[in-house]
Specification:
alpha+beta, Rieske Iron-sulfur Protein, 2 domains, 4-stranded antiparallel beta sheet
Length: 178
């Protein structure tokens, strides 16, 4: 065999080995990306599960013909979610106290994202829209949306004799959101 063909064979073998190494690296990279994707999906789903809506326990809720009253002493810094049924439609809202003990209330629906029917979850000292991810400090909950865009829909309440008072008419005015 000539020296020329020997060099050609050598280069050919080097190219084949280089191609095999490249294929192995690509396969390894794809496998690594797949594993990382699964880990990220699991981590995100666990993060969402850890921030859940809480339901009030032993809440003194009194409902009469035109209003609902809830003892403000039963509300704390962990958001409590409530449901009022209006002729088969569940109207959801939440109450939460700020760190100064003031009660804040809002519908469990966003002024913009309400069609998604996802509502809010508490994320520390803020409420987070489950649909778009925007967060709102609890101190700002319970005010009208003056800027447009995503916002916990305003639920006017009054405090009378340590009771949070919500009129059924107010709840029913936002029935379309649910």
């Amino acid at each position: 065999m000539s020296k020329k063909s020997s060099n050609a064979q050598k280069r050919k073998m080097q190219q084949i080995q280089k191609k095999k190494r490249m294929q192995k690296m690509i396969g390894f990279s794809i496998g690594l990306i797949a594993i990382m994707s699964v880990v990220i999906v699991i981590a995100l789903s666990n993060a969402n599960e850890s921030i859940q809506k809480t339901q009030p326990v032993n809440t003194n809720t009194i409902e009469n013909d035109d209003q609902i009253t809830i003892a403000s002493s039963d509300i704390d810094t962990a958001a409590s979610f409530f449901t009022y049924n209006s002729n088969g439609v569940d109207i959801n809202y939440f109450l939460v106290k700020d760190d100064k003990g003031n009660v804040h209330a809002a519908f469990d629906a966003c002024d913009v994202c309400y069609d998604a029917k996802k509502g809010y979850v508490q994320d520390g000292d803020a409420m987070r829209c489950v649909n778009c991810g925007l967060t709102f400090p609890i101190l700002e909950i319970g005010s009208s949306n003056t800027g447009g865009g995503c916002w916990p829909s305003y639920l006017p309440v009054s405090i009378q004799n340590d009771q949070v008072v919500i009129t059924k008419t107010t709840l029913e005015n936002k029935r379309f959101m649910f």
